[in-house]
Amino acid sequence: MESVQTYSYRRPSSLAPGELDLETSGGTALRGPSGAGAHPRFFNGFLQRPGVAAAGLLAVAEVARTRYFQPADTAFRDPVVTSDGERLRFESFSVCGGVHLRLDVLSAGYDGDVVDHGTTNVDVNEPLRRLLSGVLDGSALHLAVGPDDVTVTTKTDAVVEKKVPLPERWVRGFGEIYVLTGDFEARAEIPAAEAARLLRSLPSQRRASGAFWFAPAGRSLRLVSRPTPGAVCLPAPQRLSAILPLLRFATGLRVYGPPVTGAGHPVASAWELTLPGMRLTATLSPDATRGFSGEGAVLDALASDTGAEDADLVSVLLAFEPRIDIAELAAGSGLTPARVRDALVRLGASGRVGRDLAEAASFHRELPFAGDVIERMNPRHGAARALVASGAVSVGRNQPGEVSALVSSGDHRHRVRLVGDRRSCTCPWFAKHQGSRGPCKHVLAVEQSVRGEI
């Protein structure tokens, strides 16, 4: 499902000799001198390593236009950029939704002024892509994100009206990644030369399928036949193709993943190139056929009775902090740290909070979607509420810590069991996914019915 947002660019983004001029579409600025404006200026300065930055921007733009599952020609979608006072973050999802790429230009990577804080979409058009591909490290590269004034460039000064479908699945993807990466830990840190050898040895076929498992081995990774404690999953390795051109600049590779068991089910992972003054992080869904938007990881956080109110309260306190401090938010809001974390997950579900694995911290971003988008984007949550409202849930006698219930859905009745943190249902959805893609609507309905009684 897509919500079409209309973005107005004063002119195409351009690259004049020595100056990169990125046009913004508008955006949200919560503090700073300009406030929210039609074309806010977030940053004005020089990038210290222009060749690296140009290659990173091209990688983000490449992911935004690529479908890794069933490759096909696709319409280009503009990356999202956030300025938080200490860095610029450029982000995109692949068209198939299974790859998220983020370029962080850190304070050591630029020399200039952060004029404002906020989030917007950036126009990286085809002429700019061609010009960026020729940028070398020896040249000076000036970056102006969101100019308010007319800059003399080699391009014709013009107003460009552009309708860009920013898919709701991008917003869902931001939320799912925020939850899925919550238990990620650094599994390996690999020197640049070994990282280049490892990544360039992976299968390159665009249609390659299956998951590879790697176990830490000294300062490298060793291919293993099954997951072992500390192992990391690389599902559909061809989806790392966008980061390969930056290996020549990399100073190392850090790999993140969740705890794994011997079951061998593919899981998501994140692959982070450390670059001079920058980081480039590729997060991959568990399978090339699975976009992040369908993982269902945010559903538990949405089920909280106080989640919406808590999220509204916490959102007022967010101001594009480079690192969100949960203790500070708890003190400012009067909520417990646990409720603050749940509120951040709900905000993440609407794209307003992201996670920086390198710093083990959350960060703030804003996207142009209405508050009701969360309910619309998570139909299982709404379907569960409808089941409860219609009286379809019948809870039987239960032992402490255990719930057994019947849920009528259409012509079928499904049995749901909740035992501690284990959940089961007799519906086809649960039989197929075994809870790996979030709870089914029947489990959610039972949990909503007995909340506070388990």
Automatic annotation (TrEMBL):
It comes from the Bacteria. Residues 414-451 form the SWIM-type domain. Pfam families: SWIM (PF04434). InterPro entries: Znf_SWIM. Keywords: Metal-binding, Zinc, Zinc-finger. This is SWIM-type domain-containing protein. It comes from Kineosporia succinea.
